[in-house]
């Protein structure tokens, strides 16, 4: 499998707090990789470093190299908006814009100067398994949708830009089991077109959808491999303890 | 036994709180009743559409109404763009350093400065140093200065209420910081910003001290309307009719009528603020 996204000797600190320590990790094209580990282990920090969300924190210090194929994600010559267009993100809590359903999808297309006619919007909503539920009500404020629908709208918003990678930060943690299953089904479907990296606290979820799993602990990658191996036959004792629920 | 004492003390607490509320309401009702009962007789289309006549003992109050409207307009034109821009800078762009913290604390303090100080400052700066003379523009700018801290503070609070996840949502689809603020943050914060703006302007419209030395006139012939000239304004007209006029008893009804009109104007501005808030709330949910 071709490597799509990678981090090499990545170190991130916020002020005096060293959050990621020498992380080396690769994510393959058209695969779902799950990042697991106890709270505070740095999985979200790692995820957010790829689309440069840490640019917002003035005290973040990042060294090492982060690449999308051969593109240096922190290169001064590539605008950050271009990187975020190619690497989409879905957040923990659904965060639709306070606009209509239609505008939620159209906005990202507009600012990136991409076509945003109705056919494009429909395609994105269909891809996120949301079209049938909202097709009669595209003018409705997105905030009136249910939590699960809002999250699928956020996924539609991300895929509308035709990114290469979609980063997902615990996308189901605020949802009920039915909505969660729907989104998992959607994610499994999306990997045909996109490379997906997902942070999750849900061990069953990782096993259900991820091709590969990366276990992190205290800012370091402790073990990585095919999901079946991580959960079936982990090599590291910490991984065993974590996935069997002895700490976390 | 202990149960009884606690029950008794909770009744006393309840009674004290209720009494305080009733006392406040009582005075409010008395003031409003006094003004409405004595001013309602004055209210007529003629009263609000004719100029004062016969040494202000007769006629209406169209001149101070126009003055107050224009004055509030100048205040708004000056204070809204600068106030909102300043709040956006402080909240969205400025780093949290000792300098920005000092600036923010100073702005909070400015909103506590007595309005007469603004009046004297306006006199020194706009009337004298800038040579605007006592005029509508000088008074409008003075009221604008008075309004700035309120607009900045309420706008900052409205921006602060927007969760970071909304900012991240826009950035994650490739929006620049400016686009994020313009297309997502400001529209989300609009109800809070507008409510603050309207309430601030309604307060400014009722101020007397800042316009006392900067442009409000005892009486002008005809209608006011030139920004480089003096003007009449409702609060000052009221103050003057109640305390400065030589035939106070004769103008008393006009004073009550003016007070009622001023209260109605401020009431409607407040109502607008509540309506805006209600409308945006409905859209948000």
Structure description:
- The complex is a heterodimer of chains A (248) and B (285).
- Chain A has 248 residues and is α/β, with parallel strands linked by helices.
- Chain A has a single domain, classed as P-loop containing nucleotide triphosphate hydrolases (Rossmann fold, 3-Layer(aba) Sandwich), CATH 3.40.50.
- In chain A, the strands form 2 sheets. A 6-stranded mixed sheet of chain A has the order 6-7-8-3-9-10, with helices on both faces. A 4-stranded antiparallel sheet of chain A has the order 2-1-4-5, covered by helices on one side.
- In chain A, strand 9 and strand 10 form a beta hairpin.
- Chain A is globular and about 55 Å long.
- The model of chain A has no long low-confidence stretch (mean pLDDT 93).
- By secondary structure, chain B is mainly α.
- Chain B contains 11 helices and 2 strands; from the N terminus they run H-H-E-E-H-H-H-H-H-H-H-H-H.
- In chain B, strands 1-2 form a two-stranded antiparallel sheet.
- Chain B folds into 2 domains: 41 residues; 238 residues, Orthogonal Bundle (MetI-like fold), CATH 1.10.3720.
- In chain B, strand 1 and strand 2 form a beta hairpin.
- In chain B, 76% of the residues lie in helices and 1% in strands.
Task: Itemize the secondary structure elements and their pairings.
The complex is a heterodimer of chains A (248) and B (285).
Chain A: E1 3-14, E2 17-28, E3 32-36, H1 43-50, E4 60-68, E5 71-72, H2 80-86, E6 87-90, H3 101-111, H4 118-127, H5 131-134, H6 147-160, E7 165-169, H7 177-190, E8 195-199, H8 203-209, E9 212-217, E10 220-226, H9 227-232, H10 237-243
Parallel strand pairs in A: 3-8, 3-9, 6-7, 7-8
Antiparallel strand pairs in A: 1-2, 1-4, 4-5, 9-10
Chain B: H1 2-39, H2 45-49, E1 52-53, E2 58-59, H3 62-93, H4 98-110, H5 115-129, H6 136-160, H7 164-172, H8 177-205, H9 209-212, H10 234-243, H11 248-284
Helix pairs in contact in B: 1-11, 3-6, 3-8, 4-6, 5-6, 6-8, 7-8, 8-11, 10-11
């Amino acid at each position: 499998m071709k490597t799509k996204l990678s981090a090499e000797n990545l170190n991130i600190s916020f002020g005096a707090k060293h959050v990621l320590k020498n992380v080396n990790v690769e994510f393959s094209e058209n695969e779902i990789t799950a990042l697991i580990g106890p709270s505070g282990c740095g999985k979200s920090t790692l995820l957010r470093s790829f689309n440069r969300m840490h640019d917002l924190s003035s005290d973040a210090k990042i060294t090492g190299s982060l690449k999308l194929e051969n593109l240096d994600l922190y290169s001064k010559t590539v605008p950050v908006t271009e990187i975020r267009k190619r690497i989409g993100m879905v957040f923990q809590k659904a965060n639709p814009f306070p606009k209509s359903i239609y505008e939620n999808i159209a906005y990202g297309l507009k600012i990136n100067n991409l076509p945003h006619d109705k056919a494009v919007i429909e395609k994105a909503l269909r891809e996120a398994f949301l079209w049938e539920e909202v097709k009669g009500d595209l003018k409705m404020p997105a905030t009136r949708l249910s939590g699960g629908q809002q999250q699928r709208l956020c996924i539609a918003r991300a895929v509308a830009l035709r990114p290469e990678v979609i980063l997902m930060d615990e996308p189901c943690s605020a949802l009920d089991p039915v909505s969660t299953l729907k989104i998992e089904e959607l994610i499994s479907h999306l990997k045909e077109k996109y490379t997906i990296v997902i942070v999750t606290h849900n061990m069953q979820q990782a096993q259900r959808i991820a091709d590969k799993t990366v276990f992190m602990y205290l800012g370091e990658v402790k073990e990585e491999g095919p999901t079946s191996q991580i959960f079936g036959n982990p090599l590291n004792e910490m991984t065993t303890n974590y996935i069997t629920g002895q700490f976390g | 036994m202990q149960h009884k004492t606690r029950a008794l003390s909770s009744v006393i607490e309840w009674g004290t709180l209720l009494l305080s509320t009733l006392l406040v309401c009582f005075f409010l009702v008395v003031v409003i009743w006094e003004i409405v009962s004595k001013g309602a007789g004055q209210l007529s289309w003629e009263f609000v559409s004719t100029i004062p006549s016969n040494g202000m003992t007769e006629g209406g109050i169209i001149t101070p109404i126009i003055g107050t409207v224009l004055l509030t307009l100048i205040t708004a034109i000056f204070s809204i763009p600068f106030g909102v821009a300043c709040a956006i800078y402080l909240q969205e762009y400025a780093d949290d350093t000792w300098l920005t913290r000092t600036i923010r604390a100073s702005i909070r303090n400015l909103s506590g400065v007595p309005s007469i100080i603004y009046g004297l400052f306006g006199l020194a700066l706009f009337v004298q140093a800038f040579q605007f003379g006592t005029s509508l523009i000088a008074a409008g700018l003075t009221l604008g200065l008075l309004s700035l801290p309120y607009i900045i503070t309420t706008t900052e609070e409205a921006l602060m209420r927007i969760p970071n996840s909304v900012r991240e949502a826009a950035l994650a689809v490739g929006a620049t910081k400016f686009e994020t603020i313009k297309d997502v943050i400001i529209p989300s914060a609009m109800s809070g910003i507008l409510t603050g703006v309207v309430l601030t302007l309604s307060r400014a419209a009722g101020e007397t001290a800042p316009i006392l030395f900067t442009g409000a006139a005892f009486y002008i012939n005809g209608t006011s309307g030139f920004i480089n000239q003096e003007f009449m304004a409702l609060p000052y007209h009221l103050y003057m009719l109640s305390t400065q006029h030589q035939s106070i008893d004769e103008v008393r009804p006009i004073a009550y009528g003016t007070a009622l009109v001023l209260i109605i104007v401020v009431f409607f501005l407040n109502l607008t603020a509540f309506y805006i808030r209600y409308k945006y709330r409905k859209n948000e949910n």
